[in-house]
């Protein structure tokens, strides 16, 4: 027991970082927007953008090891038939309606895209899109539940 007396004992509980679904949603959207910004900056610089993430795989010895794998990436900007460039925000498999009937932002020059993404990050962080993000997440949840019930 003398060993324990030398330690500083306390009553504590770990903080549950993912407890608030709104904060979790905001964090996911902000991370996705940051990745879009990195991709746009790479395109402006004329460099290739290859996002990666860590996954678990089995090696030749049948041991589980973490390896870096290329991540699927879809750019959120696109051009229409007239050659205009637009940026649309997606979450939970749906395009987010930024205002009534408006689902994209027109970009005059592609070099303005990183600044536009910074503005969107600030809007998400301030909670301006919480309603739209919540609706998209709820629709995704309903779709997943119905597909599980059908199986």
> Average pLDDT across residues?
89
Overall tally of structural domains: 1
Portion in beta strands: 15-25%
Distance between the termini: 57 Å
Number of strands: 7
Helical run tally: 4
Shape: extended
Backbone CA Rg: 21 Å
Helix-strand makeup class? alpha+beta
- Strand line-up of the largest beta sheet: 3-4-7
Could you please describe the fold and organization of this structure?
By secondary structure, the chain is an alpha+beta fold. It has one domain (21-144). It contains 4 helices and 7 strands, in the order H-H-E-E-E-E-E-E-E-H-H. The strands form 3 sheets. A 3-stranded antiparallel beta sheet has the order 3-4-7, with no helix packed on it. Strand 1 and strand 2 (64-70) form a beta hairpin. Helix 2 (21-45) packs antiparallel against helix 3 (113-125). The longest helix has 25 residues, at 21-45. The termini are far apart. This is DUF6641 family protein. It comes from Fulvimarina uroteuthidis.
